[in-house]
Design a protein that fits this description.
GO molecular function, one term: RNA binding
InterPro entries: DEAD/DEAH_box_helicase_dom, Helicase_ATP-bd, Helicase_C-like, P-loop_NTPase, RNA_helicase_DEAD_Q_motif
Strand order of the largest sheet: 7-8-6-9-10-5-11
Keywords: ATP-binding, Helicase, Hydrolase, Membrane, Nucleotide-binding, RNA-binding, Transmembrane, Transmembrane helix
Largest sheet: 7 strands, parallel
Number of helices: 29
EC number: 3.6.4.13
Function: RNA helicase.
Strand content: 5-15%
Bound molecules: adenosine-5'-triphosphate
Length: 763
């Protein structure tokens, strides 16, 4: 086959495959494809395969040409031309046959000074200062100098890979960052599939990442890469839970490796501890303040950022900032645990901004401006808050922009905003971010340049509710990046899962400290146990008492679900309290307005669902009331953490029904005291009952359905459906319903409540 034909064929191949995959992936086809790939990954896999094939064909073409050229040169040296023997050479478009072409090239390369380009074994170039024969245009495929140089470059990069494979096969020592990720994953593969003692042959898990090198290797290997991908990237995160560990009896070799990884982890912790103790001691010295003696201007932070910090009143670092900032600025991967309201946001925003500033200084001329930093937040309000905080720190950095991608806004408008404004830093919620990744290929191209990934409230994002989305997102960003994970709570199983996002040599910063509690000493915690029928009365009474005592009050009342929140809000509003509501059923514009208003206000009560429980920085909240059990211990801590921020005082009250008291076991290590019920004033009882009566039936019914759904999902209660139905009926009475509202048959079936006494089904 002639070279031009070959090239033509190889060029049309990717197009063909692309079209094929597009036909398959567009127009409402299945969302997932073989190997558990989503349509986006599936399309990209085909594109990569096609690119790979094209590269291979061109490489072969080059090699054939080189071989012919060498043969010709050798023949010339031996005094005869071998080109006569070449078959299949025909005159090209320019009138020169490939035979003539080879002959002419051989002549050129035999000129003095060009010998090193064709020596027998393609040895090293002796001198890089030799000029290329001036009469060869640079675009010619047969520029041997270029070929040799390319070869050297590829040898170089191969050597890099060899280091890596050498490590991944044989070594267990800490090597470069790239290797770290793989070793970690290797450990997990072994864990899942029992493959030998931590040494997984040539292990490199394919991921359809934008890291060209990785994908190349993954595709080339062709050894069941897809399966491994499924097991090791997304799927690994998904499957890796505590139960899995419990179900599979560990093999002795696995145990050994677990131990060694534990030992490594222990050493890392010890290394960090000294500096942390220092920081914590400093905190004790400045009792009541979260600030340390360290100043921001002692760090490698750009003067413009320092100027913005000063303007915002940030001069000294907080404890967590001191513990984590240096490593973060150095580009290391970190997992950071620090109490609520201690300045974690600035601890990751500053390094993110510095990474953008550094990247901007390198003067790269990308056609599509890349998104350099991606911050993922579990809620929309937190995303907006983080973007606002980043903007404060970017005040003097012209041309650097922060954008948000959150649900509840119009997709097309988002897209326009992202295209028309600078966006080096993107703060997003997982669902909307994934929408853009899956539906806008241009957006994914922008993510190819990503340098930093940040997960705020990391434990929540790695929880089952978000994990799938996070896996998909991580599959679409480069592996070579800095990852920073922050939260006030990091349970052990989440810490394990988080390792999959972090490099092996990441640093775990824990300013809370082993065996120390995650709540603030200055926040007084108590709990009350009372039957459901009294909960609304009690909330009203507690609010009244607090308002009397604290003139500048600012209270948050957390309810279990959005619709129960709506009920509580309507009730308190009817009771003439100054209240606002915030939950997922409200339009985004309303939510943003309320959030801003509550941030700025005093003498206001916010009734909210868990959309406000994490990360929201409402200054000077004086009291947090939690009605009903939180979804878990962590959620209790985060809700409580809305008060007592920046070292201030605060108060927290948890209101439970008698059967909910079991939850106290989960937080028994926290300094929480039982309060005794004071008798309700007769006017309170009367007023609350009157207001409940006035509330619209539809609000009550929605509250009942939501309540049932919430408690049904809590394993400890949801298992015993008959008891659950009884409890739901008591809740019904507490909101003024005589009979429990009917459920749709389908809903009841889904919830496992069909045929349960006390559950009514819609006819
Ligand atoms: N170095 C600093 N100097 C002064 N104030 C600071 C500093 N760092 C942070 N703050 C302030 O501390 C408050 C809490 O910060 P931030 O919201 O980052 O806490 P957090 O640790 O992320 O809390 P959460 O766990 O609830 O997300 C904010 O009002 C912030 O402006």
């Amino acid at each position: 086959m002639s070279c031009s034909a070959l090239r033509h064929r190889s060029k049309s191949l990717p197009k063909l495959l692309c079209n094929l995959s597009l036909i398959r992936t567009m127009g409402g086809g299945p969302r997932t494809f073989a190997g558990g790939l989503n349509k986006w990954q599936y399309k990209r896999m085909h594109e990569k395969l096609a690119r790979e094939k094209e590269r291979r064909l061109l490489q072969q073409e080059k090699q054939i040409y080189q071989a012919r050229l060498r043969t010709e040169i050798r023949a010339k040296i031996a005094g005869k031309s071998s080109s006569d023997d070449f078959s299949g050479s025909s005159p090209g478009a320019g009138g020169m046959s490939s035979k003539d072409h080879i002959r002419a090239l051989a002549d050129r390369f035999m000129k003095e000074g060009a010998e090193d380009l064709w020596n027998e074994d393609d040895g090293p170039i002796r001198s890089r200062t030799h000029g290329r024969p001036s009469n060869i245009p640079p675009s010619r495929p047969l520029d041997l100098r270029k070929i040799v140089t390319e070869k050297r470059a590829s040898i170089g990069s191969f050597e890099h890979r060899r280091n890596y494979s050498k490590w991944s096969r044989n070594s267990s020592s800490d090597e470069d960052d790239d290797d770290s990720v793989v070793r970690l994953e290797g450990g997990l593969l072994k864990k899942f599939h029992g493959k030998g003692g931590g040494r997984v042959e040539g292990l490199r898990f394919p991921r359809f990442s934008l890291d060209e090198e990785d994908s190349e290797k993954d595709m080339k290997r062709g050894d069941g890469g897809l399966d491994r991908k499924k097991m090791m990237s997304g799927a690994a995160l998904r499957n890796y839970d505590v139960k899995m560990d419990k179900r599979t009896p560990p093999r002795p070799d696995m145990e050994e490796s677990d131990l060694s990884s534990d030992i490594r982890e222990f050493h890392r912790d010890m290394r960090n501890r000294a500096s942390l103790e220092n920081a914590v001691n400093q905190q004790e010295v400045h009792e009541g303040s979260i600030l340390t003696q360290k100043r921001f201007d002692e760090y490698n932070i750009s003067p413009l950022t320092i100027k913005a910090l000063n303007l915002a009143g940030y001069v000294n670092l907080t404890v967590v900032q001191e513990a984590a900032l240096l490593e973060c600025l150095e580009g290391k991967d970190v997992l950071v645990k620090a109490k609520t309201g201690t300045g974690k946001s600035a601890a990751f925003l500053l390094p993110a901004i510095e990474a953008v500033v550094r990247a901007s200084n390198t003067n790269s001329t990308n056609r599509v401006p890349p998104i350099l930093v991606l911050i993922i937040s579990p809620t929309r309000e937190l995303a907006i808050q983080l973007a606002a905080e980043a903007n404060v720190l970017l005040r003097y950095h012209d041309g650097v922009g922060v954008q948000t991608l959150i649900g509840g806004t119009r997709f097309k408008l988002d897209q326009k905003r992202l295209e028309e404004n600078p966006c080096q830093i993107l703060v997003a919620t997982p669902g909307r971010l994934l929408d853009h990744i899956e539906n806008k290929s241009g957006f994914s191209v922008r993510l190819m340049g990503l340098k930093t990934l940040i997960l705020d409230e990391a434990d929540h994002l790695l929880d089952l509710g978000f994990r799938k989305d996070i896996e998909k997102i991580v599959d679409c960003i480069p592996r070579q990046r800095q990852s920073m994970l922050f939260s006030a709570t990091i349970p052990k199983e989440v810490r394990r899962i988080s390792q999959l996002l972090l490099k092996r040599d990441h640093i775990f910063v824990d300013t809370v400290g082993l065996g120390h509690i995650e709540t603030h000493d200055k926040v007084v915690q108590s709990y009350l146990v009372a039957p459901h029928e009294l909960h609304f009365h009690l909330v009203y009474q507690l609010l009244n008492e607090h308002i009397m005592k604290v003139p500048d009050y600012k209270v948050i009342v957390f309810c279990t679900t959005a619709m129960v929140t709506a009920f509580m809000y309507v009730l308190l509003r009817d009771l003439k309290m100054n209240v606002r509501e915030m939950h997922s059923r409200k339009p985004q514009l309303y939510r943003t307005r309320i959030s801003d208003e509550f941030r700025e206000s005093k003498c206001l009560t916010l009734v909210t669902s868990d959309v406000s429980s994490r990360g929201m920085n409402y200054p000077d909240v004086t009291l947090v009331i939690q009605v009903g059990i939180p979804s878990d211990r962590e959620q209790y801590i985060h809700r409580l953490g809305r008060t007592g921020r920046e070292g201030k005082d605060g108060k927290g009250i948890l209101l439970l029904a008698p059967w909910e008291e079991y939850f106290m076991n989960e937080i028994k290590d926290l300094p929480i005291e039982r309060s005794h019920l004071t008798e309700l004033g007769s006017d309170i009882k009367h007023k609350v009952e009157q207001s409940i009566e006035k509330i619209d039936l539809s609000i009550k019914e929605a509250a009942y359905h939501a309540w049932l759904g919430y408690y049904n999902s809590i394993a400890d209660i949801g298992r015993d459906k008959t008891t659950l139905a009884e409890l739901a009926n008591r809740f019904c009475q507490s909101i003024g319903l005589d009979r429990s509202p009917a459920l749709f048959r389908k809903t009841a079936l889904k919830m496992g409540l069909k045929g349960i006494p006390g559950i009514n089904i819609r006819k």
